[in-house]
Amino acid sequence: MKVALFVPCYVDAFFPEVGIATLELLERLGCEVDYPLEQTCCGQPMANSGCHAEARDTEALFARNFAGYEHIVTPSGSCAHHVRDQLTAIGQTAEVTAVRRSTRELVEFLHDVLGVREFPWAEFPHKVGLHIGCATLRRLREASASEIGEPAFSKPARLLGAVKGIEIVHPERVDECCGFGGTFSVDEEPVSAKMGHDKVADHLAAGAEVIVSPDMSCLMHQRGCAQRSGAPIRFLHIAQVLNGSAA
Amino acid sequence: MSRVDHAEASSRFIEAKDHAEFHDKRLWDLRKKRDAETQAIPEWEELRSLASAIKEHTLSHLGDYLVEFERNATANGMVVHWARDAAEHNQVVYEILQAHGVTTLVKSKSMLTDECEMRPFLANRGIETMETDLGERIQQLDDEPPSHIVVPAVHKLRGDVAEVFGRTIGTDPGNSDVAYLAESQRRQTRPYYLKAEAGMTGANFAIAETGSFVVCTNEGNADLGANLPSLHIASIGIEKLLPKLEHLGVFVRMLSRSALGSPITQITSHFRAPRPDSEIHVVLVDNGRSDRLGMDDFWYSLKCIRCGACMNTCPVYRRSGGLSYGATYSGPIGVIIDPTFNLRKYSSLPFASTLNGSCTSVCPVKIDIHEQIYKWRQIIAERHQLPMVKKEAMRLAGKVLSSPRLYRAAVEAAAAGIEKLPRSLVYNPFNAWGRQREVPAAPAQTFRQWYLKHRRGGSR
């Protein structure tokens, strides 16, 4: 299957290992992966700040880069959400709407499109706290939300459950927002940092050694908090665990 | 009017560590109770859809139902008044009170009268208002607005209440026993029910079909205030209408479950007609609601039944406190209502959200709160109400991120550059990210650089 890989700007700049794990995992699963070289960002930072005029050219560039692909995969839930549900600063041509429809977060793609249920190459003998970003949880609906009375499900947990040796532990506030929130993290620094430190503490109390997430931006924020407070906890993107590239 | 600085106010809130922790835990506890109560009802999601549909229907026929309510309430013997805005509301109330020679008013909780700033208006004209709801009374004595629409003094610890009561009603400031404080307030308030010439309530629902209105409370204070004096005034926002009595059951089942995680309020009072030798006056208040009803993107906010569930679930509200919003309505519902009153003053509020969306999930009438927050941000940007620094940062980001060449230069230099910057520059008070968090370490190469090396330009 042919797949276009979108590596979000902050992953490209700060977490190349996440892009590499995603690429290797897709290749391992038999995908032919294209990485359009002129890609930058999906426009979310500007659009989430209300600045649609400023998001327009970036969104247009995204649509141009990924036009014509049947599957566009990204290791970031909020970017996938932006493209699919909110990439509206530009005209909605047939090409743009096709790009939007075809974009999926990595877990969705593995779980729903490829239908992968086994990762025989992956082993991760650790206590893992699973963090699902809010866009991934409530917009992409990759898992049930604790405030909604619905049968429990979790696509990320289901995939991780297939990794040898892994033990998932649950914080008390299982899906409370960690406070990243894009530009919120700097606009509202006091609350954002408080939420991040609280989130890390909740995972520590549950006995987590590693926090794993399909959302690297949330992890960037939580990791920054943990490093500042000296909390003994590591952070990995779900692609790194599923690819077996982290031990 | 100056802008509310939510971030700055929340910083002060968080500094008071004990208060901040208590506030967060107390409200999270309400959220958990709400989850348990709502999830015990198999048809909860159906109820939400039904409640939303009833409200949308009512709002889209609001003029007809208001006229029907007025007709039926008048036939029941109530007097119905109309108020275009806060000033008119206050004037109407004052004239009723003046005509009856009222100097003391006992009042139960009503966000609408806070919205209209009625208490100081009446005080300036020689009429004393006694708040009878415990939380509201604490806030009145401390000269602070309510910080939560259901639990007005939730940001205070009991020691704070002991201090306020000690200072104002003469209790022992060192005694913070809850029963002692509640009993003291009760004893101080009781005589007012007999002394007051008028009682005032709000209303949770007004029924067009019956011309009656419903007040849901837990303390019994509203009923004393409404039934002891011979004059009862109810201030009701025009969005509180329901078409028929049969619709009420849907909302009564949802209100307290959403608000406090209890199946129903202790008291649900129906007011239909005045007692013999008494009067009931209803003031139907617009104060911006008709304008809001005309806003394509925001009229859904009028479905709100003021349960506060969105506030209790909101991680930002729980960690910043209601007063940090600088408005009558705080938390997620405040964030989408307040800008309709004053866009400039409240322009920071839609940014006091991570857009996590749990507010939308708990809302019993399915207001798409986080979507409205997202839309308000666009309006604020379009109407040039963003801070200059932010606007400029976004302009620059848009320029760099839309140019592959500029983008690559930036990320490749930034990655290499952060390492070289002195720590004092990265972690200074002006760098919001680095104040309480570490900045990610710079990798040796970007993903793209790795890719070019290992996959040799495998683009299409």
Task: Characterise this structure.
The complex is a heterodimer of chains A (247) and B (460). Chain A has 2 domains: 2-114; 127-242, AF0625-like (Rossmann fold), CATH 3.40.50.10700. Chain A has helices at 9-14, 16-28, 44-48, 52-66, 77-86, 94-102, 106-114, 134-139, 155-160, 184-187, 189-205, 216-229, 238-242, and strands at residues 2-5, 32-34, 72-74, 103-105, 127-130, 167-169, 210-213, 234-237. Chain A starts with a strand and ends in a 5-residue tail after the last helix. The longest helix of chain A is centred in the C-terminal third of the chain and has 17 residues, at 189-205. The mean pLDDT of chain A is 97. Chain A is α/β, with parallel strands linked by helices and 247 residues long. Helices cover 48% and strands 11% of the residues of chain A. Chain B has 460 residues and is α/β, with parallel strands linked by helices. Among the domains of chain B are: 41-287, Rossmann fold, CATH 3.40.50.10420; 388-455, no CATH class. Helices cover 52% and strands 10% of the residues of chain B. Chain B contains 22 helices and 10 strands. In chain B, strand 5 (205-207) and strand 6 (212-217) form a beta hairpin. The radius of gyration of chain B is 26 Å and the shape is globular. The termini of chain B are far apart. Chains A and B meet through helix 1, helix 2, helix 3, helix 4 and helix 8 of A and helix 1, helix 2, helix 15, helix 17 and helix 18 of B.
What's the quick description here?
Chain A is an alpha/beta fold and 247 residues long. In chain A, 48% of the residues lie in helices and 11% in strands. Chain B is globular.
